[in-house]
Design brief:
By secondary structure, this protein is mainly alpha-helical. The chain has a single domain (40-205), classed as Hypothetical protein, domain 2 (Endonuclease III, domain 1, Orthogonal Bundle), CATH 1.10.340. The protein has 13 helices and 2 strands. It has helices at 11-16, 27-35, 44-57, 62-67, 69-75, 81-84, 89-95, 105-125, 128-133, 156-167, 175-184, 191-200, 202-205, and strands at 141-142, 188-189. The protein has a two-stranded parallel ribbon with strand order 1-2. Helix 3 packs antiparallel against helix 8, helix 3 crosses helix 11 and helix 10 (156-167) crosses helix 11. 35% of the residues are buried.
Length: 208
């Protein structure tokens, strides 16, 4: 699992569209980058979807997860935590035979476990969104990195959230996964900071 960061692009590419390098040219990655990554999410179902997908990525590429996203929608009840919480051993056995998802028993069991913990958080705070967004006082953290090398893999906020989630019984949600989740759901805005850093880079200046 790794936080998605950007690398320098050419002057022509930046003028055409400010974009990170990690989506490369894959249509799924480009659509995700341009339409979802960094957009603030306050819908509980969508937040749960990203938790599931981010935790499923551990040890794999994000592209692998995106290619199986539709399979996850079908296999995991459109990411409805109430339905997933009722999955039993028979359902797990079925999921382990489903090639449309990542067939890792620990990750599947973690998703079911996390759905149950997710429901407990909703009950305590009224919504998962209220719980998670309080970490950043309800608005995105807008980083202002001056250099690409400054981009972190984790932050103190991600570590704190990961620790709290773990104390509540969540699994497969370490600080690196959580920081990627924060980036994906717009809790932290690294994209504008990254583009700004790219524009200030020596490689960009040398092309002007």
């Amino acid at each position: 699992m790794s936080v998605r960061t950007c690398a320098p692009m050419t002057t022509k590419e930046l003028k055409l569209k400010p974009r990170c390098e990690w989506p490369a040219t894959d249509p799924l990655m480009l659509t995700y980058h341009d339409e979802e990554w960094g957009v603030p999410v306050h819908d509980d179902r969508k937040l749960f979807e990203f938790l599931v997908l981010e935790s499923a990525q551990a040890g794999l590429s994000w592209l692998t997860v995106l290619r199986k996203r539709e399979g996850y929608h079908k296999a995991f009840a459109d990411f409805d935590p109430e339905k997933i919480a009722r999955f039993d051993a028979k359902k797990i056995a079925t999921l382990l035979q489903n090639p449309a998802i990542i067939r890792n028993r620990l990750k599947i069991e973690a998703t079911i476990n996390n759905s149950r913990q997710f429901l407990k958080v909703q009950e305590e705070f009224g919504s998962f969104a209220k719980y998670i967004w309080r970490l950043v006082d309800g608005k995105p953290i807008r980083n202002k990195w001056r250099k690409l090398s400054q981009l972190p893999a984790i932050t103190k906020e991600a570590e704190a959230l990961s620790k709290d989630l773990k104390s509540r019984g969540f699994k497969f949600l370490g600080p690196t996964v959580i920081y990627a989740h924060m980036q994906a759901t717009g809790m932290v805005n690294d994209q504008s900071s990254i583009v700004s850093a790219i524009k200030k880079s020596d490689s960009f200046d040398s092309e002007e």
